């Protein structure tokens, strides 16, 4: 059936029917009392999800817009910035900072591996004059299926004194992130991942240290001004026209998260990640990330010899309507990815594993589909 698909990419993620229905509600005055009450409640709910006492701004933007807002609000041209990159999105954060005039140094790790806190500590220890003003971290690197130990990395940065700036666009909600307890100064997330809402909203939390840095930051900003956003937030508004319909959807998405319970949401994603990895290995395929910090939001799989990511994904979609993600950057042709964050459950993983196995079998790859399914069922618990 042409219109029936199982979307298993790391974003945009599947959107629950109740969220879609909410997005179709009639428009209201974005300066009126109905909207104002909604925004105030959303900001309170987001603070709980970010696990912070900080104000959380809601921006009409994709996740990349949120990353740009993080850069321009707290830094100045010429500031020394250390970018810790383990993949494509770590590189993107660095590219944004460089575009606005920051002096960016990259601390790069092999794609498929997490960042090493000891190596970060060693680099920061060399910065005796404290030239490094901020360190850019990626919480969950969807291009490689790896989750960084942000708590450990942030502790190293706080000892140095630089701002800790975290891209958690695909991490927040799916994975535990304790903004205040871990000393994170700036955290960015977005609607189209584990929030189960269509693309178009970005969220950003800033600590008192970050707000203090903003007072001296001189990168240009108008639309991205968090100072203006906070000023208007006190009236329950945004400085610019908000994406009202997406806010309706976000209300319902967050209600679903609260009903399930944040800790239960984390547990579900751990279960899905464990199921996917166990099944892939049992079938005889190779994971890109085969270590404790493999992501519970997305699983990256090396393509069998002689096949490209595009070939595999096209065949799985054609035969079974399962939509998988390809690789990015230098991994474009060599891996394919299963996204399992947001509105995804165990049945989706079992379906995906079976369809991938049967497809590869039809393409001449010796895989053990039955073993993969059994491993997934055992991992389900």
Concise summary:
By secondary structure, the protein is α/β, with parallel strands linked by helices. The chain is built from 13 helices and 14 strands. It has a seven-stranded mixed β-sheet with strand order 2-10-9-8-5-3-4, sandwiched between helices. The chain has a three-stranded antiparallel β-sheet with strand order 11-14-13. Strands 1-12 form a two-stranded parallel sheet.
Could you explain the architecture of this structure?
With 381 residues, the chain is α/β, with parallel strands linked by helices. It folds into two domains: 17-258, Aspartate Aminotransferase, domain 2 (3-Layer(aba) Sandwich), CATH 3.40.640; 262-380, Aspartate Aminotransferase, domain 1 (Alpha-Beta Complex), CATH 3.90.1150. The chain contains 13 helices and 14 strands. The chain has helices spanning 17-23, 33-50, 63-74, 88-99, 117-126, 150-160, 208-214, 226-233, 244-260, 262-283, 309-320, 346-362, 369-380, and strands at 6-7, 56-60, 80-85, 103-108, 132-138, 140-141, 146-147, 163-167, 186-190, 201-206, 298-302, 322-323, 325-326, 335-339. Strands 2-10-9-8-5-3-4 form a seven-stranded mixed sheet, sandwiched between helices. It has a three-stranded antiparallel sheet with strand order 11-14-13. Helix 10 packs antiparallel against helix 13 and helix 12 (346-362) packs antiparallel against helix 13. The protein is globular. The protein starts with 5 loop residues before the first strand and ends with a helix. The model has no long low-confidence stretch (mean pLDDT 97).
């Amino acid at each position: 059936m042409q219109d029936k698909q199982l979307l298993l990419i790391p974003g945009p993620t599947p959107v629950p029917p109740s969220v879609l229905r909410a997005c179709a509600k009639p428009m209201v005055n974005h300066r009126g009392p109905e909207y104002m009450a909604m925004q105030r409640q959303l900001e309170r709910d987001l603070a709980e999800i970010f696990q912070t006492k900080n104000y959380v701004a809601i921006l009409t933007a994709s996740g990349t817009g949120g990353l740009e807002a993080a850069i321009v609000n707290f830094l100045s041209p010429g500031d020394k910035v250390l970018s810790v990159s383990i993949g494509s999105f770590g590189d993107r954060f660095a590219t944004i900072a460089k575009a606005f005039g920051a002096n960016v140094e990259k601390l790069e790790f092999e794609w498929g591996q997490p960042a090493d806190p000891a190596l970060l500590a060693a680099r920061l220890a060399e910065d005796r004059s404290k030239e490094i003003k901020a360190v850019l971290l990626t919480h969950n690197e969807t291009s490689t299926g790896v989750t960084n130990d942000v708590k450990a990395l942030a502790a190293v940065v706080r000892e140095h004194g630089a701002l800790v700036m975290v891209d958690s666009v695909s991490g927040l909600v799916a994975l535990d992130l304790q903004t205040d307890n871990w000393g994170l100064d700036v955290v960015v997330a977005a609607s189209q991942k584990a929030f189960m809402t269509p693309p178009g909203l970005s969220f950003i939390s800033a600590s008192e240290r970050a707000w203090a840095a903003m007072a001296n930051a001189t990168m240009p900003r108008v639309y991205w001004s968090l100072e203006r956003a906070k000023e208007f937030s006190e009236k329950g508004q945004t400085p610019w026209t908000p994406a009202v319909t997406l806010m309706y959807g976000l209300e319902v998405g967050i209600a679903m998260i609260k009903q399930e319970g944040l800790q239960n949401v984390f547990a579900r994603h751990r279960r899905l990640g464990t199921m996917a990895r166990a099944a892939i290995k049992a079938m005889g395929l190779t994971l890109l990330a085969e270590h404790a910090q493999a992501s519970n939001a997305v699983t990256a799989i090396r393509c069998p010899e002689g096949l490209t990511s595009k070939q595999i994904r096209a065949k799985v979609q054609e035969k079974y309507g399962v939509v998988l993600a390809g690789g990015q950057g230098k991994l474009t042709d060599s891996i394919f990815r299963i996204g399992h964050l947001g509105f995804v459950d165990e049945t989706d993983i079992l379906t995906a594993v079976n369809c991938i196995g049967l497809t590869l079998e039809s393409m001449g790859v010796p895989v053990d589909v039955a073993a993969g399914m059994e491993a997934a069922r055992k991992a389900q618990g």
